[in-house]
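Q: What does the assembly look like in three dimensions?
Context provided by user:
Components: two
Sequences:
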Amino acid sequence: MADEALFQFLHSELIQYIYKSGGSGETENGKRVTKLETMGFRVGQGLIERFTKETPRFKDELDIMKFICKDFWTCLFKKQIDNLRTNHQGIYVLQDNSFRLLSQLSAGKQYLEHAPKYLAFTCGLVRGGLSDLGVKSVVTAEVAGMPACKTLWQGCS
Amino acid sequence: MADEALFQFLHSELIQYIYKSGGSGETENGKRVTKLETMGFRVGQGLIERFTKETPRFKDELDIMKFICKDFWTCLFKKQIDNLRTNHQGIYVLQDNSFRLLSQLSAGKQYLEHAPKYLAFTCGLVRGGLSDLGVKSVVTAEVAGMPACKTLWQGCS
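A: Here is the predicted structure of the complete assembly.
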């Protein structure tokens, strides 16, 4: 439990640090989200490199996605993705009903506007992980009510 | 292993981010080290709060220090402190012969000048943890050769 908390606390500190400086306009906020996403991307790449050292090759995109939903998500957040849907045309929707990095915020809609900064790093993690597995993608996230989170992954390859 | 790597990678990203901006003078570097230390302090406080919820009260300072060397260090770095010495007058020296956050750097003396930025957050972690246990302290670290690290903890209470 405590080492999971270590990541959560450090993640919060990083967000606070990035959001402390500079202006508060939409452009500024966009830049911050991009920074967090880029950091997540690099970390995701590094993690997948270590994590898949002993893993046999993946059969196809669906196989990769199952790995992300089960093994990768469990490694990151100690739980699997709760629901996975796809349109079989390269779009995948991963739903986590109790996303760990939102669990520090109050449940409900009160702090909904703060959600994007808590999601950006993880979007980057997924995009970086996928990139290292040879899948170029766009990863976005949405929250309708805390602490549930949907991650939309759109393949670009 | 992978969740430990998650913390290590995020820690590296944070350092890179903090060191990317601003000047390169000694004052600037000092400020950066302080920032990292302060972040570590807050994370250390949070961790100890969670970690000691179920722990019985500590008998004395030595008891606290044993907890830091064993349980806290293991939670952070998956290993115990290798050596602990004290002058019995409030100074404790904790030695880790293979400090995880230095293991990414090459062994030897080549990158010794970069060591302080990889130690500051952890000094803060220890100081924050101790502070939450009622011990005011000054925590410094020194490296004679990678990846060994000595943490000097001087009680101030």
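Follow-up: The radius of gyration of chain B is 15 Å.
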